[in-house]
Amino acid sequence: MKYFYLLFFLSFLFSCTNNKSTPIPTPEIQAPHQITKSEFQTILDSADLKGAILIFDSEANTFYSNDFAWSEKGQLPASTFKIPNSMIALETGVVEDENTLFKWDGRKRMVKIWEQDLIFRDAFKFSCVPCYQEIARGIGVDRMKEFLSKFDYGNIQVDSTNIDLFWLIGAAKITPFEEIDFLKRFYNSKLPISKRTEKLVKKIMVLQENPTYKLSGKTGWSMDNDKNNGWFVGFVEANNKVYYFATNVEPNPSFDMALFPKIRKAVTMQALQELNIIDAF
Predict the structure, then answer these.
(1) Band of pLDDT at residue 196, cut at 50, 70 and 90
(2) Mean pLDDT, residues 21-45 taken together
(3) How many CB atoms are closer than 10 A to CB 223?
(4) What domain count does the chain have?
(5) How many other C-beta atoms lie within 10 A of the C-beta of residue 42?
(6) What are 248's strand-pairing partners?
(7) For residue 223, is it within any domain?
(8) Which one of 71, 79, 86, 127 is the catalytic residue?
(9) Active-site residue, 79 included
(10) 215 falls within a domain
(11) Quick check: 67 pLDDT over 90?
(12) Is residue 89, in this structure, part of any structural domain at all?
């Protein structure tokens, strides 16, 4: 009987040892699909623009674009940087909440609507560059670099000489793919920010909301080295799903620049409609 128990114990011990050495398989992560949409190119051609419209269907794990090579090119983030800048402002206490007031100093500004006192929510909505320059100076170089590293946001160089300009001129770069990656992590609470900050930034990003979809985003426009480059980035909640987009465009020589402020959003909305994500607008 003792011999039987000894055999049983040795068999059990050998079984446990084998189980411990058996590797646990890790789930295979599928690379996103990429589908070229010639219809997006037609939209840009009709608008007299060159560039790329990039849309990501998170549920289908699929990217759609007219030009994936352009979508991998880094560009100045311009005012799309107001999204992470707002997060950093709130996390550092430079901005208290959506009602924090920015006083106009009375000087003439590039855009007429900036020539007034603006609360934080409206500074974001009206893309007030002087307001966000004040924010960036308040954050400072060290804290700005620290958060950008935590956010893994593009390829951004910040120092004391460019703290209030780096997103508008210079060497800072982010690609449409990187914009979408950042937005995905933000939407899915994967960024190192508080729930309060996440909730507030999502709130000020909302552009349209109706019974069929909710559109959140931010435009951007840089004019560096005589080159106009425009963005519209964000996400759409529709059909119980979320879709991310990053449009980056430049005007052709014959383009009417008076149309540039609205055209970035317009071509993106046409592409979202092409994919049946939103209804005709």
Answers:
(1) very high
(2) 80
(3) 13
(4) 1
(5) 13
(6) 52, 231
(7) yes
(8) 79
(9) yes
(10) yes
(11) yes
(12) yes
**Gap between the Cα atoms of 130 and 255, Å rounded:** 28
Q: Residue 250 belongs to a domain with what CATH number?
A: 3.40.710.10
Task: Compute φ and ψ for 227, nearest 5 degrees.
Answer: -120, 125
pTM of the model: 0.89
Among candidate residues 161, 95, 165, 93, the one with its CA nearest the CA of residue 123: 95
- Over residues 128-152, mean pLDDT: 98
Q: 119: Cβ–Cβ under 8 A, 6 or more apart, which residues?
A: 98, 99, 100, 101, 102
Name the residue with tokens 């690609």.
175
Residues of the chain above pLDDT 70, percent: 89
Instruction: Flag whether 279 is in a domain.
Output: no
Q: Which burial class, exposed, middle or buried, applies to 28 when counting CB atoms under 10 A from its CB (0-12, 13-18, 19+)?
A: exposed
- Identity (one letter) of the amino acid at 158? V
Helix, strand or coil for residue 183? helix
Domain range enclosing 136: 31-274
**What is the token pair recorded at 30?**
């599928």
Q: What is the pLDDT of residue 226?
A: 87
> What are the structure tokens assigned to 149, written together?
């590293």
Place of tokens 């430049």: 250
